[in-house]
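Review form for a predicted model. The reviewer records the input and the model, then writes brief findings.
Reviewer: anonymous (R2)
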Amino acid sequence: MSKTDKPFWRRKTLEQMTKAEWESLCDGCGRCCLLKLEDEDDASIAYTRIACRLFDSATCQCGNYALRSKLVPGCVQLTPVSIREAAHWMPETCAYRRLAEGRDLPEWHPLLTGDAWSPHDAGVSVMGWTIPEYEVHEDDYEDYVIPGMN
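Model under review:
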């Protein structure tokens, strides 16, 4: 297989990707939209069932993707630079994280399957089981931790 026969994510660095290629790496699982708790002692990350206030659990999409960083000040807009700095809090399954760490896409990724529903079918997405952050008091976040998720 020649270099040009390889898919873009195997022949380009994150920095070389076009905006469209970069955006297509998102598998639509919604895990990045879950609120996470970081342990102060060991910096481990715990995922909760609580989703960002903009997250639409029925579609597994951001309710206002274009303005998300303005509407939610803590929302991190991923770039080739920021993913390298923030990879530790992104899901292990995340294509951005996997590529930044030198790994390949997971077998269920839509770019490999050609099916946008493959993350949902694979049981990787959070579709339908999140709680909006505005329904949970900050003091209760620990009650919503998902054991073993990363």
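Findings: The first strand starts at residue 34 and ends at 38.
Further findings: The chain has a mean pLDDT of 93.
Recommendation: see findings above.
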